[in-house]
Structure formats: C-alpha cells, structure tokens
Amino acid sequence: MCGRFTQAYTWRELVALYRLTVPASNLEPRYNIAPTTTIDAVISRGDHFELARMRWGLIPSWWNKTAKEAPSTFNARAETVAEKPMFRSAFKRSRCLIPASGYYEWKATPDGKQPYYITAKDEPVLSFAGLWDEWTNAETGVPIKSATIIVTAANKFAAQIHDRMPVILAPDQFDAWLGGTAGTDILKSASENMLSMRPVSRRVNKVGNDNDPTLIEAMQ
Fold it and tell me: Superfamily for 5-216?
C-alpha cells in the first residue's frame, strides 16, 4: 500500500530523469500528499514525455457516478491490475510514471502506529509505476485526469514496516512501460539495497500539512 508520499524535487531533476522538453514549471514541494489531492504524473505524448497534474485516485473514463462514489483507487495491485475492471483499460492504453521523493508507511507499536519515511539511498526521485485516465464529470462537463500508483509485494527491507510497496521503475524501463510494450512482469519489488527508511513525526498522520518539510526529518 502507498497512502501518503512526497513530491519535493526540482524541475531540473525531473528534466534530467524524464527528458522533459516543455517549458519550466513552478513546482511547489509537498511533504504529505494524501489520496484525492492533485499530484504530478509523467505521461507519454508521441515521441516525448510530459508532466501532467492529476487527481490521485483513478476514475475510469466509463464511470457513470460521481467522483465521491468511486471506490478507493489510489493504489492498484500489480497481481490483478491487468484484469480488474477499474484498471484494465488504463493498463492497456494509458500508463504513467508518478515521481516521488519518498513515501510513508506505518508500523504498529505498543503506543500506536509509528510512521516511517522511505526514500532512495542515492537518487533524488523515485519513479512509481502508475495508470491514468480521463473522466468527464457529468454534472459540470469538466474533464478530470486521475491516476493510481501500482503496488506489489514488499521486498525484505520494506517488509519490516508493511507487506506492500510501490512498484519503482528504473530509467531503462520507462519507455517500455509508458509505451505499453511491458507486461505485468515488470511490476516487481525494488532491490533490497535501493531504499532507506527512518522514523518520523506522527504529525504525518494529520492530512492537510503537506507544506511542512520537517515531516520527513528523522525522529530524535
């Protein structure tokens, strides 16, 4: 599962990683992103990649109810993403990468759940495998882009905290994933030595404080 994450990178870092060619964007760092809020996603547009803003929580194009009536779709399981009705169309035709600086998971302790911040040891940006779609709100006629993060079984390192983790793709996998030529075999857990983790403040538990950089600081 991935229910909170951060996007605190620079535009230069995204350009270098995804070969973006569009004009520079003013990126605001966010340290506690929650489902149904807006996130950055990278999509393929012909021969180049593009950064798009999307709702976190995929609403398929065929959905005929309101957004509030959509089920919880901020994560999609790698094992079933190609068959589940909510995700299978997007898996076939509209994939994305979701850049992240890190993500949170919680560990049960005698005095309550303790959040941990998990990030890459050596790289400033993690690339989560995702899916996206565009749905039109029947009440307003406004099209809404939305996305989900694909999760898989945790590796031994991440399993210390939780049994699931986001699928993290390497740069040499981007073209195959976004171009639709890669199958579910690409949706594996990260290598054991890729990530680091640290306990952080339980203030992460509160939604709405995603402009606070102290949330990712290690507990003293």
Answer: SOS response associated peptidase-like (3.90.1680.10)
pLDDT one-digit tens code per residue, 100-123? 999 999 998 999 999 999 999 999
Cα distances (angstroms) measured from residue 47 to each of 64, 68, 133, 168: 33, 35, 20, 23
Helix (H) / strand (E) element for 12: namely helix 11-18
Write the DSSP symbol of residue 154: -
Q: Cα(22)–Cα(49) distance, rounded to whole angstroms?
A: 9
Determine contact, residues 164/152, Cβ cutoff 8 Å.
yes
Q: What is the pLDDT of residues 136-184, one digit of tens each?
A: 998 888 999 999 999 999 999 999 999 999 999 999 999 999 999 999 9
In this structure, the strands spanning 112-120 and 195-199 are: antiparallel
| pTM of the model as a whole | 0.96
Q: Which residues belong to the active site? A: 2, 105
Cα maximum dimension of the chain: 52
